[in-house]
Structures are given as C-alpha cells and as structure tokens.
Amino acid sequence: MFKARAAFSGFSVDDLGRAKEFYTKTLGLEIEDERMGIRFRLPAGGTIFAYPKPNHVPATFTILNFVVDNIDVTVDELTNLGVKFEQYENPKTDERGVARGEQGAPAMAWFKDPAGNILAVLENSDDV
Known about the structure:
Elements: E1 9-13, H1 16-26, E2 30-34, E3 37-41, E4 47-52, E5 62-68, H2 71-80, E6 98-100, E7 107-112, E8 118-123
C-alpha cells in the first residue's frame, strides 16, 4: 500500500517576486522561501507550494479557495487592495463579481493572481 509521509499541492507562476508580494501583502499569507520556490501557510493549517516556470500557462480552473465569513466585506477589502474580480455567466456573477449561491451553493467570487491563476473567496457554508 502507498504510504506518503506528507502531501501538498503546488502551482506555477511566471514571476516569483510578484507572487510573493501578492500572496503576502494582498492576501496576508505567511510564506517560507525554499530552494525551488515558496511555500504558503494556509489559514487553519496546510501549505501550498508555488514555483517559477519560464513557460508558465495560467490555470484555467480555481487553484485555491479561501473561505470567508462575509463575501461582501471580503470583496470590498480585496477590491480596495487592487484585486479585480472576474465576471462569469455560469454561474452568473453580479456587477461586483459575486455569484450569489444558486441552487444552495455558497456565495463565491473569483479573481486572478499576478500570474493569471484563478483563486476564489467563498462565504462560510456548512457544506465547506
């Protein structure tokens, strides 16, 4: 049987310095520099690894979700820090970029990191 000692997820970026600044100053994550990239400490435990890749192609799916208590307050705070929220038709987002929990889903909003990877904030839900 496969027995891993640990596990973590990772993603690529095109500029490690810009990623460090965004994830620490805009999103408030703590980081550790490592030989091959940077490791982010996630709220409530866990880590995720980012590494530079010269031919980086942004993820076309959500790579990281942040659970928040109030989607509207969070969207306002991030917007004031320069974050631009995505507009989607499915699920339909409002003028601020928030999908308002259709069919029992939590309210969510998506945005991109400086490398174009998609991130999301979602309002606290019992389903998460």
